[in-house]
Amino acid sequence: MEGSRPLEVAQQLRWFAAARLRRHARLRRHARLPTLVVLLVLPLLIPSAHVASVARTAATYGVLALGYAVVLGLCGQFTMAHAALFGVGAYAAGILAANLGVDPWLTLPVAIVLAAIAGAVLGLSALRVAGDLLAIVTLAAGQLAQLVFVGWTPVTGGNAGIPDVPALRLGGHLLIEEHELYLLAALVLVLAVVCLDRLKGSGFGLALQSIREDEVLAAANGVAVGGHKLIAFALSGAFAGAAGWLEATAIGAVSPTTYDVVLSVLVAVMVLLAGAGRVYAVLAGAAFVAVLQDLLSSLPLVETGAIGAAIVAVIMWRSGVFTRRWRPAL
Amino acid sequence: MSLLAAVGLSQSFGGVTALEDVSVEAGPGELVGILGPNGSGKTTLVDALTGMLRPERGRIELGGVDVTARGAAGLARLGVARTFQTTRLMEPLTVGDNVLLGLHCAAVRRRRSRLQLVDAMLDALGIADLDGRVVRELSHGQRRRVELARALVGSPRALVLDEPTAGLFGPDAQAVAQLLAGVAESGVAMFMIEHDLGVVAEVCTRVVVLDRGLVVDQGPTRAVLAGDAVAAISGELGRDRFEAVSA
Predict the structure, then answer these.
(1) Angle at CA A103, nearest 5°, toward A97 and A109?
(2) How many CB atoms lie within 10 A of CB A53?
(3) Which of A161, A263, A324, B204 could form a disulfide with A83 if both were Cys (CB 3.0 to 4.6 A apart)?
């Protein structure tokens, strides 16, 4: 079959070119993680407890924001109850460790599982409503969670919260130094990045993105839209649960005011600032918010103004002002 | 024996009858053309055949089994693939990723094998050079072929196509039509809405003509195309072109 030989060669060349493109993309992707690790080491080199504390907050926010990136960035579900899931993780750690005497390390899987379950329950609303309505419904769910945090006093400690969460212990050594706590948060963050990177590149991640782009298209290709949404919410909750555990064990206290709607808005800002589907940019968004919060902490009025501006920015993003979808109202 | 069939479908929207007791079927290796003017119920029929729409009356059968309640995702998992009248693609993603989505239900689990299938399908449709391109940058004709690649890559048992050659011209439309005929010959049951009667005459084994929700004619391609039903709606179907092709 001499005649088909040039065609075969042409086909092999095209496949080779496509494979080379994919290899380059893979190399670029693989270069990002070592870069992140190098950046995460930098705060450890600065002998300042305050810098380490801000870096720890940034890393914790990073884990939280990565969870939100699963549900918004990959799956396209705009929710406003992420702070509540963060709270579930923190309260799970606090209640088990402080009230029931469980080793704080053992509370991590419980915090993750409980927050994942809470996430899935929250996700049930996404089976019935979408878009802005989903944001409103989940906002209400977040407020309900707040009521539980404040009102279920015998368990959650009410307004006082849980003031004495035991510190983590590693081989007899208490992890109370800011640099140690930051290192732990950074390790969890790297793990979360690896998980999300793998998720994004998987068939499941592609299915989530198809839901984000077009649910009809997703269903036509065999994607169980409802089931995938629930799993996305559960995964998002799992990330938030891990972040909540980090927060509770690092600060040594759980306070209901931390997990309010303002934090949900800030998480949305962290993710939207970066472009919802971009894993590493989301981390930059989280670091930006953590640093800004620290800089403005001595200026409460300015901080309140900044939060107000953030809310306006989120609403403007929803209305498409920052994208090509926006058209001026006539 | 039919592989994919609609039996006694009826559907109305706000008092307007879209389908009235419509029965159509396609067996393995059959490519059934669906003709009809705008508003005749073609897309409603395709939506019902692919589980996008649960009909008010009647049923959808796949391999003789009633699958009406399975929904779009369920039917896709059973091997029913489709394309849309207006191409539906994941705009910010690459061509390769869009085609990869067509393998969501495939038994092939290894990523490398999946990518090889994607490459082979892009090559078969002459768009291998588009692999890494973002879909939103593509022309209409290219998008049409990407959608076809996505529908075909999973080796479906049945394929339902809504105007697969729309936006393609001359040799491109011809090549896609030949590809579809080849796919049908491999044993896939196919329905195809098509306005280009030249394409219908060339590749369809049977034709169904719809008008105002009713099946007004169906049978072997040549006989139906030469019949009164097609003559009555020829203005909308490009009969001149058909005559030019068949001459």
Answers:
(1) 85
(2) 19
(3) A263
Fold (topology level) of B1-79+158-247? Rossmann fold (3.40.50)
A307 token code pair: 């939060």
Extents of the domains making up chain A: 53-260
CB B182 within 8 A of CB B213: no
CB contact under 8 A, A220 and B52: yes
Query: Cβ–Cβ of A217/B50 closer than 8 Å?
Result: no
Amino acid at site A171:
G
CB atoms within 10 A of CB A115: 31
pLDDT at B240: 47
DSSP letters spanning B167-220: T--THHHHHHHHHHHHHHHTT-EEEEE-S-HHHHHHH-SEEEEEETTEEEEEEE
For Cα atoms A285, A289, A294, give the angle at the middle one, nearest 5 degrees.
150
With CB atoms and an 8 Å threshold, state whether A216 touches B71.
Answer: no
3-state class (DSSP) for residue B21: strand
Within its chain, how far is the Cα of B173 from the centroid? 14
Q: Shortest CB distance from A222 goes to which of B77, B93, B96?
A: B77
- Name the residue facing A210 among B101, B103, B123 (closest C-beta): B101
Of A14, A17, A206, the CB nearest to B101: A206
Report ipTM (2 d.p.).
0.90
Q: Which of A132, A144, A145, A143 is nearest to A76 (CA)?
A: A132
Say whether A14 and B129 touch across the interface (CB within 8 A).
yes
| Whether B88 and A217 lie within 8 Å, measured CB to CB | yes
Q: Which of A221, A223, A229 to probe by mutation at the B interface, max B CB count within 10 Å?
A: A221
pLDDT in tens, A90-99: 999 999 999 9
Question: Mind telling me how many Å the CA of B10 is from chain A's nearest CA?
Answer: 22
pLDDT at B246: 47
For B78-121, what is each residue's pLDDT tens digit? Answer: 999 999 999 999 999 999 999 999 999 988 888 889 999 999 99
CATH 3.40.50.300 location in chain B: 1-79+158-247
**Length reported for chain A:** 330
pLDDT, tens digit, 9 for 90 and up, residues A117-139: 999 999 999 998 988 899 999 99
Helices (H) and strands (E) in chain A, counts: 13, 2
Of B72, B65, B76, the C-alpha closest to B3 is B65
C-alpha to C-alpha distance for B65 and A140, rounded to whole angstroms: 44
With cut-offs at 50, 70 and 90, classify the pLDDT of residue A28.
low
Quote the pLDDT of residue A63.
97
Q: Which residues of B touch A219 (CB under 8 A)?
A: 51-52, 71-73, 76
The DSSP secondary-structure symbol of A164 reads -
